[in-house]
Amino acid sequence: MTAMTRGGPPAKDSVEVDMNDGTGQREQERPRVVILGAGFAGLSAALALAREPVDVVIVDRQNYHLFQPLLYQVATAALSPADIAAPIRGIVGRFENCSVLLDTIDEIDREAREVRTAGGRRVGYDHLIVATGATHNYFGNDHWREVAPGLKRIEDATELRRRILMAFELAEMEEDPDVRDALMTFVVVGGGPTGVEMAGALAELARYTLARDFRHIRPEGTRVVLVDANDRLLRMFPERLSENAAQALTKIGVELVMNRRVDGMDHHCVSLGDRRINTRTVIWSAGVTASDAGKWLGVETDRAGRVPVDPFLRLEGDPRVHVIGDVASHTSPSGKVTPGLAPAAKQMGRYVARAIRRQARGKPVGAAFRYRDFGQLATIGRHSAICDFGRFTVSGYPGWWLWGGAHIYFLIGFRNRLAVAANWFWSYLTFGRGIRLITGDIGAKGPGQG
């Protein structure tokens, strides 16, 4: 195993890890910043440190950066995975001080200042940025994971696309009307942005895109049920916008079930107390929990698994470790909790990079991190969205254009922006969704055949 050269790009045949001298110390020419995770937070930090007098090592178990807000469009056959993902090396490869290590985190030794991976590597650091994101939270019912996948990875989206499209194929061949109705019933659990957007996209896929594709079923008669334990959807938005979203969903045929908590499910039904919904496809969007960063760092976390940080996004008592994005529990000086949103993650990444850059130049860190809220957006189908910018709000058709423009702008890479814009324009004109591919073995278990 060859040590990575410090102060420049790794040698051609080198392995991108740091080698200790046996005492936990290592020779260095300039600070090394190790970034765990290449999501919005980690990648923003890496790009902000590019060309700076530091060496950056990005560690991620995937070789791509994923634009998670559009995963639901992959699941509903509107976009291809390649439209919303880009190789990490393709993004940072042009910067000589950045390198990438494809591996999984096993533990963090803060005393030795090194990250240990499942591949047996030991990556030393001078500054560590933990940005490993979040995963689905089933609130103690992890056995529901197989029945109701969520949307955090490309694999989740393609599996949901397979289940959704297979449900229609199986319904086309099914002779039992009760089973056919269950196959054409889709339950989305959780009334946040992902759940609302998923339910709206599902309803439109059935009622418009697939309406003329089948001979023995009527896809426009598909039942899409959105279940939420709260009294209204999108609670982070003003009540008026929540009502607008509910009306827009109802208009396109989504059935809303509010103030009802899921207390059981299997491959054939979802239970809501004394109510039972027969379905073969359940989609989970009811909550998230942070990655295992707290365990790696050996610190206590909050109920959502997030690591508490100081006003400068540093681990309490360890200024060399920064925790950002969905895995960080941060409260601004004004007492406002920083939300787990992509804009907040990007701002955190840039802030930490600036702090490290200032330290490398012998300057003080500066002011504490303060999240600037530029607004929140959510779409409901092809004609409606809600946008909350604080002082003013936008909904309906104008909101849909604002939502689309914002998402295209924040995509990584010109090719992705062009591909998504072209797909959306074509879908808008034709009601078509061209990525209706059932991947994998079609003989595999379909919906409800666990």
Structure description:
The chain is of the alpha/beta class and 450 residues long. Among the domains are: 137 residues, FAD/NAD(P)-binding domain (3-Layer(bba) Sandwich), CATH 3.50.50.60; 144 residues, FAD/NAD(P)-binding domain (3-Layer(bba) Sandwich), CATH 3.50.50. Helices cover 30% and strands 22% of the residues. The chain has eleven helices and 25 strands. The protein has a six-stranded mixed beta sheet. β6 and β7 form a beta hairpin. α1 packs parallel to α9 and α4 runs antiparallel to α5. The longest helix is centred in the middle third of the chain and has 20 residues. The chain is globular and about 70 Å long.
Blueprint of the fold:
Blueprint: E1 32-36, H1 40-49, E2 55-60, E3 64-66, H2 71-75, E4 85-87, H3 88-92, E5 98-102, E6 105-109, E7 114-117, E8 122-124, E9 127-130, E10 134-136, H4 154-173, H5 177-183, E11 185-189, H6 193-209, E12 223-227, H7 239-251, E13 254-257, E14 264-265, E15 269-272, E16 275-278, E17 281-284, E18 288-290, H8 293-297, E19 307-308, E20 314-315, E21 318-323, E22 328-329, H9 342-360, E23 376-380, E24 384-388, E25 393-395, H10 396-410, H11 414-430
Parallel strand pairs: 1-2, 1-9, 2-5, 9-21, 11-12, 11-17, 12-13, 19-22
Antiparallel strand pairs: 3-4, 6-7, 7-8, 10-18, 14-15, 15-16, 20-21, 23-24, 24-25
Helix pairs in contact: 1-9, 4-5
Properties at a glance:
single chain, 450 residues, alpha/beta, FAD/NAD(P)-binding domain, six-stranded mixed beta sheet, 30% helix
Work out the number of β strands: 25
Structural category? alpha/beta
Please report the number of helical segments.
Answer: 11
- Residues in β-strands, percent: 15-25%
CATH topology of the domain at 142-285: FAD/NAD(P)-binding domain
